[in-house]
Amino acid sequence: MVLVLACCISGMSVAGQQLRLTDAAALAARTLGRGGDPHAIAARLSPGALVTLGADGDIVCVTLSQSASLTALLPVTLSARSCALGGGR
After folding, report:
1. What total number of domains does the chain contain?
2. How far apart are CA 24 and CA 82, in angstroms?
3. Which of 8, 21, 30, 79 suits 42 as a labelling partner, its CA being 20 to 30 A distant?
4. How many CA atoms lie within 13 A of 86 on its CB side?
C-alpha cells in the first residue's frame, strides 16, 4: 500500500513538473518572438531545463527538456515545445 501511494505522489509531482515546463516553454517562445532572452525565462521558471531554439520563417519555437524521476528506478525525460510569431526582431 505504501509503494502504491509513493508511486501516485511521484506521478503527481511529475505531472506538475510537466505543466510548469509547458508554461515556461510558452512564455519563452513569446519572449523570443518579442526579441527577448528565452534562456533567462527558462532558467527562472524551470531551472535545469535544456533550451532549444528554432525558427521557420516568421515563427519562432522553443523546446524545453528536463529529466524527472517517476520513482527511484524509473527516470523519464519531459519535453515541451511552444511556438510564437517572431515579429519583435
Report:
1. 1
2. 9
3. 8
4. 19
Kindly give the pairing relationship between strand 50-56 and strand 59-71.
antiparallel
- Rg, the chain, Cα only: 15
Phi, psi of 42 (to 5 degrees): -65, -40
Query: What is residue 11's three-state secondary structure?
Result: helix
SS3 percent helix, strand, coil of the chain, rounded to 5, is 45, 35, 20
Angle formed by the axes of helices 2-33 and 38-45, to 10°? 160
- pLDDT tens per residue, range 24-75: 999 999 999 999 999 999 999 989 999 999 998 899 999 999 998 777 678 8
- AA identity, residue 3: L
Residue 82, all three cell numbers: 511552444
pTM for the whole structure = 0.84
Beta strands in the chain (DSSP E): 50-56, 59-71, 74-85
